[in-house]
Write a structure and sequence with these properties.
Length: 238
């Protein structure tokens, strides 16, 4: 049964009442409104209680009569914002006498209490600068194409609380291991510097060059070597 809202400004003052009944999930008091109307207060404030416990008591008390809500107190979340989760309901089982000079309000249904969605894991966001269009030859200088890709990545993550930024640089198998390690590391740091200078920062940074390790394609072809020359970027946050 839905409760109809009654804006009972003159009926807020309550006379002391005695507890009618109580249970492990509710307290139910009999009260008298300032205009003499018999009313009830259902309270469901404990850890294991819910607004459904209060609504069940409203149904039991009023039976086939029309239940009218005089006032409710919602549970409050962080930031002092109500959660639309009533934990105290003041109601009567017949239409209360409206306060004089007050227009009768239109009845509205009490919103159903929706279950809270389960928290979702923070998404991982990735982008890879791959091939020869992102860096000058044998250099860590970013090309305009690489900067455009990084700008898109920065815009996609604006407002994200980034807990960790991981940047991994790789090369193909040509050149010495020492050269590949230095070049891949320099390119990874160049990407981090660009991201940080444009507002993308993280609580933790993991920036490394891995040379020719972990290839994603065969180094026996030009196309494969181009794929292996890459910088992988990932942010983890919410």
């Amino acid at each position: 049964m839905y409760l109809r809202i009654l804006l009972a400004t003159a009926c807020v003052a309550l006379a002391a009442g005695c507890t009618t009944t109580s249970g492990p999930t509710y307290n139910l008091d009999s009260v008298t409104l300032a205009n003499g109307t018999q009313a009830y207060r259902a309270q469901c404030l404990g850890v294991f209680e819910s607004s459904e416990s209060c609504l069940e008591q409203v149904k039991k008390v009023c039976g086939s009569k029309s239940a009218v809500r005089v006032a409710t107190i919602d549970r409050v979340a962080s930031g002092m914002k109500p959660e639309d989760d009533p934990r105290e309901i003041l109601f009567a089982c017949s239409t209360p006498v409206p306060a004089q000079a007050q227009p009768a309000p239109q009845p509205q249904p009490v919103p159903a209490v929706a279950p809270r969605p389960a928290p979702q894991p923070a998404p991982a966001r990735k982008v890879t600068l791959q091939g020869d269009a992102n860096f000058e030859l044998n250099s860590a200088s970013l090309t305009p194409a690489a900067k455009a890709s990084l700008d898109d990545f920065i815009n996609a993550n604006r407002g994200v609380d980034i807990q960790q930024l991981t940047i991994a640089g790789y090369t193909d198998s040509t050149g010495s291991e020492a050269l590949n390690a230095r070049l891949s590391g320099a390119r990874a740091r160049a990407v981090q510097s660009y991201l940080a200078s444009h507002g993308l920062r993280a609580a933790r940074n993991d920036v490394n060059g891995y040379g020719s390790t972990s290839p994603v394609a065969p180094n026996t072809t030009a196309a494969g070597r181009a794929k292996n020359r890459r910088v992988e970027i990932q942010v983890d946050g919410q």
